[in-house]
Amino acid sequence: QVHLVESGGGLVQPGGSLRLSCETSGKVFTLYQMAWHRQAPGKQRELVAIITSGGHTTYPDSVKGRFTISRDNAKNTVDLQMDSLKPEDTAVYYCNVRDFDGPPGTEYWGEGTLVTVSS
After folding, report:
1. Phi first, then psi: what are they for 84, rounded to 5°?
2. Residue 88, SS3?
3. Do residues 96 and 3 make contact, with C-beta atoms less than 8 angstroms apart?
4. Residue from 28, 51, 52 nearest 101 by CA
5. CB 38 within 8 A of CB 50
6. What share of the chain is helix, strand, coil (3-state, %, to 5)?
7. pLDDT tens digit at each of 119 positions of the chain
8. Would you say 75 and 25 are in contact if contact means Cβ atoms under 8 Å apart?
9. Dist. CA 99–CA 119, nearest whole Å
10. What residues pair up with 23 in beta bridges, in sequence order?
11. Nearest-CA neighbor of 89 among 33, 43, 58, 24?
12. Are 109 and 3 in contact (CB under 8 A)?
């Protein structure tokens, strides 16, 4: 019943920008954490950004200063602004929600959107 749908992926030149969006539906979340993860071919899925219910954000060094996560609780969306993109940013990007209103460990994933950084 809970669905997360990502959008905004595509092909972009190195140094360019892209904005991803994730829309949630199927449940009204009142206390939840939202995040973006990515997975490149041959690599494990890795965390890209986290934003808590209180608005606190966390980024790994690989994207810090280039990526910005934001959320709009009224619209049930979470965005990822990606600037100064590098070829190594190429991956499938996934939206994730951790629901603290339900049983411990409850989380949901989108199906992913492909980002390709290439000239």
Report:
1. 50, 50
2. helix
3. no
4. 28
5. no
6. 5, 50, 45
7. 889 999 999 999 999 999 999 999 987 777 889 999 999 989 999 999 999 988 999 999 999 999 999 998 888 899 999 999 999 999 999 999 998 888 898 999 999 999 999 99
8. no
9. 39
10. 5, 77
11. 43
12. no
How far is CA 58 from its chain centroid?
A: 12
> Scanning the structure block, which residue is given the tokens 């973006």?
36
The pair of structure tokens assigned to 94 is 């996934």
In order, the DSSP letters of 17-37 are: -EEEEEEEESS--SSEEEEEE
Of 4, 40, 6, 5, nearest to 20 by C-alpha is: 6
In angstroms and rounded to an integer, the radius of gyration of the C-alpha atoms of the chain is 14
Per DSSP, the residues of 3-19 read EEEEE--EEE-TT--EE
The answer to whether 78 touches 4, Cβ cutoff 8 Å, is no
Q: Supply the pLDDT for residue 30.
A: 75
Integer Cα distance of 41 and 39 in angstroms: 7
